[in-house]
Amino acid sequence: MKGFNKDGLLFKHTGIHIIMLVLAIVAILPIYILLINATRSTEQINAGISLIPGMNVVYNWRALTSRGFQITQGFFNSLYLAVLMTVLGVYFSSMTAYGLHVYKFRGRSFLWGLILLVMMLPPTLSFIGFYQFVARLKMLDNYIPIVVPVIAGAGTVLFLRQYLSSILQMDLVDAARIDGAGEFHIFNMIILPIMTPALAVQAIFSFVGSWNNFFTPFVLISSVKKYTLPMLVQMLRGDIYRTEYGGIYLGIAVSIVPILFFYAFMSKYIISGIMMGSIKE
Q1: Is residue 281 part of a domain?
Q2: Can you tell me whether residue 241 is helix, strand or coil?
Q3: Phi, psi at 192, each rounded to 5°
Q4: SS3 content of the chain, % helix, strand, coil (to 5)
Q5: What is the distance between the alpha carbons of residues 206 and 83, in angstroms, rounded to a whole number?
Q6: Across the chain, what does the average pLDDT equal?
Q7: Domain end residue (candidates: 61, 77, 101)
Q8: pLDDT tens digits, 25-55
Q9: How far apart are CA 174 and CA 168, in angstroms?
């Protein structure tokens, strides 16, 4: 009987490892093919998929830079927007979530319901009105309309409030108030350190989403010097007979490198952020 249990447990563990291996291959394979295509010529890419690197990196880089691909400027613009949107979005979303969770005020339930409603609506549904509003404010070709809407985003507020409801004990806040701490001091010095795992998770999602954001900057930004990396990569596409797919793949590969580094640096917080713990007394 003991041998049967051991065999069953071994079979179960083997099955789990096989499933994890298959999922890892499915997740890594598209990125690997992207990196491989960045080293191949357009003719080789059109011929089919290959898992062996090519020898056209230098040619692809020349094709990339010769078509107005200002990688340094685009990298700086993407990094500036991604960092700004991540910091402001995560901080003010956490402040909103804290206010909704801790303070009792009239209309709180209505405000919470409104946040849930906004989260369920597709962003593109109101984009035409948003564009007209920005145009009337004469703020086209400006980063401000791109940054402001992400401050206190509905999805981020929902996640952080649910996290607070699972870990925050009001005795901790009340004790800080009795000691004479102000509300901003409590939030910045006590609440934010407690929320670090959840903030890190939302920072990953916000940074990746901001870095990959193409549609909003493409509609609002018209100056080439303000283009982000995804917009510059789109500029590489021309007539079908002149498109250098190797250069396009190389441009995409360059644009995702910061995301991979940021994710690798912050990924250790994902499990601890999603697995909501509690404060030990």
Answers
A1: no
A2: coil
A3: -60, -45
A4: 75, 0, 25
A5: 9
A6: 81
A7: 61
A8: 888 888 889 889 888 888 888 888 888 888 8
A9: 11
Rounded-to-integer distance, Cα 45 and Cα 32, Å: 14
Distance CA 16, CA 179 (A): 51
The answer to whether residues 129 and 202 belong to one domain is yes
Residue 100 to residue 126: CA distance in whole angstroms: 25
Computed on alpha carbons and rounded to an integer, the radius of gyration of the chain in Å comes to 24
Residue 26 lies in a domain: yes
The verdict on pTM exceeding 0.85 is no
Residue 45's Cβ-count burial label (10 Å; 0-12, 13-18, 19+) is buried
3-state class (DSSP) for residue 270 = helix
Are 202 and 93 within 8 A, CB to CB?
Answer: yes
Distance (Å, rounded) from C-alpha 233 to C-alpha 281?
Answer: 52
b/e burial code for range 147-178 (CB count within 10 A of at least 16 → b) = beebbbbbebbbbbbebbeeebeeebbeebee
For residue 124, give the nearest of 149, 96, 88 by alpha carbon: 149
For residues 93 and 203, give the distance between their C-alpha atoms in angstroms, rounded to a whole number: 11
Residue 201 belongs to a domain with what CATH number? Answer: 1.10.3720.10
At 80 the pLDDT is: 92
Domain of residue 19: give its range: 2-61
Same domain (yes/no): 106, 41? no
pLDDT (tens digit, 9 = 90+) per residue, 58-89?
888 887 777 666 778 888 999 999 999 999 99
14/89 same-domain check = no
Tokens 């090519």 — which residue? 54
